[in-house]
Amino acid sequence: MQKPGKATDAVLTPAEVCELYPIFRNPQALADLRYRGDGPDYIKTAGRAGRVYYRQSAVERYLDDRTVKAGGQRAA
Q1: Span 20-68, pLDDT tens digits
Q2: Coil, helix or strand for 73?
Q3: DSSP string for 40-72
């Protein structure tokens, strides 16, 4: 069920993120980013051994924040 006023946002597994965004080489590369405290925001299910998921909007936001315009300026 969709919350009122909130747009639909796909929830992706690490493998799906890597398939859609080849800049993330593989799920282990995403895990390394998480370990270092970098990378897109993610969802972690309960417990230490819980599964990790990413909202597509969080991945897009992460990439947008790192997009550099020609001439070395960050994109607006």
Answers
A1: 999 999 999 999 999 999 999 999 998 888 999 999 999 999 999 999 8
A2: strand
A3: S--EE-SSTT--EEEEHHHHHHHHHHT-EETTT
Residue 62: CB partners within 8 Å, gap ≥ 6? 39, 40, 41
DSSP secondary structure letter of residue 3: P
Going by C-beta distance under 8 Å and a sequence separation of 6 or more, which residues neighbour residue 55? 9, 10, 11, 12, 41, 43
pTM: 0.78
Distance between CA 11 and CA 7 in Å, rounded? 13
Residues 47 and 41: beta-carbon distance below 8 Å: no
